[in-house]
């Protein structure tokens, strides 16, 4: 069973870079790593997805080492509006399409 | 159109009522999901439909009955629920054409309260 482990919470200040690391020791060969952001009472929203090395888009970067047993979401220059819960997902090798959320990381950005 | 639309946004029901939650997407996605989310907890997978067939049931009690009438619609029929079933019910879709790649598109959820 592919399982992810993340820090429960993190604090940061506006303008800082935030790195959230996710551990996924049992990731399967075919699994991709996907990160989502969720605000209260809303559905999660896709941030970024990768398979290996580094992926960058307009809002974040994702770093994945060669062994793929962990990944790091990097949010450059956070603002108050980045206060949210961040989830890392990998596929569950027990079933195609089986996408299980881990506990997530609650990020609080302070002025 | 990259939206997943869920109705109703809020639902209050008694334990003897029968109600349904609805979800619609027009992105041509062939995988559709129901998740349940309690306060301050992660979304919990309930059901997955792949190409309009139920492919995953995470041992959900039979008082929750999913239905996929066509590739754009997903329903969750509710009957004889318990107060502990009160939660945010999230629908999501995904293209589902390449293993576990591709993002999940979520609706805003239906907030269910069981009295």
Annotation field: number of helices of chain B: 0
> Structural class of the helices, strands and pairings of chain A?
mainly beta
CA-CA gap between termini of chain A: 40 Å
Which spans of chain B have pLDDT < 50 for at least 5 consecutive residues? none
What string gives the helices and strands of chain A in order?
EEEEEEEEE
How confident is the prediction overall: mean pLDDT of chain B? 92
| Stretches with pLDDT under 50, minimum 5 residues of chain A | none
The chain pair forming the largest interface, with residue counts per chain, is: A-B, 26 and 29 residues
Strand residue percentage of chain B = over 45%
What does this structure look like?
The complex is a heterodimer of chains A (111) and B (115). With 111 residues, chain A is mostly beta strands. Chain A has no helices and 9 strands. Chain A is 0% helix and 45% strand. In chain A, a hairpin with a 5-residue loop joins strand 6 (61-64) and strand 7. Chain A starts with 8 loop residues before the first strand and ends with a strand. By secondary structure, chain B is mostly beta strands. The radius of gyration of chain B is 13 Å and the shape is globular. The termini of chain B are far apart. Classes of the chains: A mainly beta (111), B mainly beta (115).
